[in-house]
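Lab notebook, design round three. We kept the backbone fixed and only want residue identities now. Task for the bench partner: fill in a sequence for the structure below.
Input structure tokens:
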């Protein structure tokens, strides 16, 4: 399916949209190509307006407008364009863009692991990521590929349909990043800052290597505490990104990086989290499990082994939280500009080659 230079591909329930041109033009393409899905999402959200006082139309619109207010203009243009062609209009489009507020379960979700060097026997770096926001709307997982005409680096965002920011993404230069909640370590909200996943979109559009993206993190503080794991073909780091400081944490081992939802760098002076019933959201359990699996599969990691690793349930020594927490899973190989996406119980692992989708 095509519209004004944009293209939509579907593999089972997985949507892939390829967008070109100005930010307004890319938004118009997105809104038209995914009009059906965008209206379905809004319909599902609006069905709950009268059931929960925390998610009435007025409450959600106020929150959505508050986030949108500080969006960089170019990303506002995407949403303006979507509103023109989706049939939703601006206010309803903003509510769809605020989807993660609606589906958020609790503080402390998501797991990430990168393997390279000795852990891949010299093969390319491979990254695994579980996105843990529950199953609601997981069947709307989308790979949106933005090819702007302003000289920015093209970016693929892997998230829900209609969400204009990056919680997992890769750019044309082979920079991959994924965001985990970090509020277990610092529960602080800054309402006068840009919504940080929007900043990550900008980081990817502006960075061709690890040094450049490092400068981005040291130039901008987030609205909440996050853990952002960044990789390219040469290696990976974990940014423990608090509202008043940031630490680039080195890999756990030479060739292995694991991060869940708590800061572990000694800089913070935080006590370690015990592996007991008080472990919030099992963040320490998931981290310990992934470190152990890293050693178990040392020298064997490739995309297939990483898919297997990320799919091992928590109770069996992994980080996968079935059936009600893990929304979708991603495996990425930055050197090859490839990602694989799985939506548990909806879509099995599906390869997306980003090379032909970038300009």
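Proposed sequence:
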């Amino acid at each position: 399916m095509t519209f004004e230079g944009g293209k939509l591909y579907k593999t089972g329930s997985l949507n892939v949209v390829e967008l070109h041109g100005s930010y307004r033009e890319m938004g118009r393409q997105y809104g038209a190509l995914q009009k059906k899905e965008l209206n379905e999402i809004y319909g599902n959200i609006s069905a709950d307006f009268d059931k929960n006082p925390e998610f009435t139309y007025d409450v959600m619109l106020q929150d959505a407008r508050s986030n949108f207010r500080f969006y960089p203009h170019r990303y506002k243009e995407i949403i303006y364009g979507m509103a023109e062609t989706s049939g939703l209009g601006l206010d309803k489009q903003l509510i769809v863009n605020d989807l993660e507020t609606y589906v958020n379960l609790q503080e402390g979700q998501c797991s990430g692991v990168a393997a390279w060097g000795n852990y891949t026997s010299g093969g390319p770096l491979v990254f695994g990521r579980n996105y843990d926001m529950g199953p609601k709307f997981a069947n709307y997982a989308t790979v949106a590929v933005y090819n702007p005409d302003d000289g920015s680096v093209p970016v693929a965002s892997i998230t829900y349909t209609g969400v204009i920011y990056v919680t997992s993404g890769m750019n044309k230069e082979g920079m991959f990043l994924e965001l985990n909640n970090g509020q277990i370590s610092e529960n602080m909200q800054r309402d006068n800052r840009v919504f940080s996943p929007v900043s990550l979109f900008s980081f990817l559009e502006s960075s061709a290597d690890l040094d450049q993206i490092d400068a981005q993190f040291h130039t901008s503080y987030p609205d909440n505490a996050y853990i952002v794991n960044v990789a390219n073909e040469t290696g990976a780091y974990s940014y423990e990104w608090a509202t008043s400081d940031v630490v680039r944490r080195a890999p756990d081992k030479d060739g292995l990086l694991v991060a869940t939802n708590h800061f572990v760098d000694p800089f913070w002076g935080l006590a370690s989290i015990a592996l007991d019933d008080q472990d919030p959201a099992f963040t320490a359990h998931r981290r310990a499990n992934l470190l152990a699996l890293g050693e178990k599969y040392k020298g064997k990691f490739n995309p297939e082994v990483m898919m297997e690793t990320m799919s091992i349930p928590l109770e069996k020594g992994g980080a996968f939280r079935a059936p009600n927490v893990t929304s979708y899973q991603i495996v990425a190989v930055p050197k090859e500009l490839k990602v694989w996406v799985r939506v548990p119980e909806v879509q099995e692992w599906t390869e997306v080659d980003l090379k032909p989708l970038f300009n």
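Keep this in mind before ordering anything: Residues 207 and 213 are 5 Å apart (CA to CA).
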